[in-house]
Amino acid sequence: MRKCLRCTVEMVEGLDIKVEGGAYGIKVTQQGVFKDNLGKFKCAVCPECGYTETYIENPERVKKLIVDKK
Ligand SMILES: [Zn+2]
Questions:
Q1: Which end of the chain is more exposed for a tag (fewer CB within 10 A), N or C?
Q2: Range of 42's domain?
Q3: CA-CA distance, 70 to 46, in Å (whole number)?
Q4: Separation of CA 54 and ligand 1 centre (Å)
Q5: Ligand 1: distance of its center to the CA of 18 in Å?
């Protein structure tokens, strides 16, 4: 569960981000040889103030990047 950083109210999670004018989501990729797709951006919105937070659906893949660097 995510709480708004400003109001500490529970946020609505799992919302999709789309590029206006198209059905394309935004993906986060790692630059380099593998160009790994790190996952889709998701967002959470605070129903009180509208504060929007973005996060990646599968943070495990990002964790793996840290492990790989060690
Ligand atoms: Zn808020």
A1: C
A2: 12-69
A3: 36
A4: 14
A5: 22
Q: Cα(16) to centroid of ligand 1, in Å?
A: 19
CB distance 33 to 68 below 8 Å: no
Please tell me the distance between residue 48's alpha carbon and the centre of ligand 1 in angstroms: 5
Distance CA 43, CA 64 (A): 22
Q: How far is the CA of 30 from the centre of ligand 1 (A)?
A: 31
In a domain? residue 2: no
Contacts of 29 (CB under 8 A, 6+ apart): 35, 36, 37, 38
- pLDDT number for residue 6: 94
Better pLDDT: 31 or 45: 45
In a domain, 1, yes or no: no
Q: Does 44 have pLDDT greater than 80?
A: yes
Single-letter residue type at 14:
G
